[in-house]
Amino acid sequence: MMTFRTDSPKSCGIVELDDDGVVQRFHEKVENPPGNLANAAIYLIEPEVLDWIQEREYVNDFSNQVLPQFLGKIATWENKGIMRDIGNSEALAKAQKEVVFPENNNLDEWETEFLSNSIHQSIQSIL
Question: Which Pfam families does the UniProt entry name for this protein (predicted)?
């Protein structure tokens, strides 16, 4: 699971880790989160997790139904570089606009860092 530090933890799923960086608790968009280390919702998933999901037709919410079943088994990596939270419709729309029409943006710190990073050229080449 990729994680990142957020300034608005109430709007994110917040993880609590052990000393090895393994998820011990997960709090999905709670009023008083116990920290600011957020789930970026980017995963490398083992086949056993996919099997578990396929065996349960009712599963339709990864954060609330799947993650709790695998607490203590989820390794994390904290992204300290480029990260744009798109966890709500406004943030997603802003991110889409930034990629499609970068010339119309009033650049914030994230956008300035993104546009100067080599990953931006890679993304532009596939658009």
Answer: NTP_transferase
What is the value of pTM for the model shown?
0.72
Tokens encoding 25: 């608790």
Q: Give me the chain's average pLDDT, please.
A: 86
* Dist. CA 121–CA 115, nearest whole Å: 8
3-state secondary structure of 95: helix
Amino acid at 127: L
Superfamily of domain 1-80: Spore Coat Polysaccharide Biosynthesis Protein SpsA; Chain A (3.90.550.10)
For 51, phi then psi, to 5°, come to -60, -45
Torsion angle of the four alpha carbons 48, 49, 54, 57, in this order, in degrees rounded to the nearest 10: 140
Q: What is the pLDDT of residues 38-64, one digit of tens each?
A: 999 999 999 999 999 999 999 999 999
53, 59 Cβ separation under 8 angstroms: yes
119: pLDDT confidence band, cut at 50, 70 and 90?
low
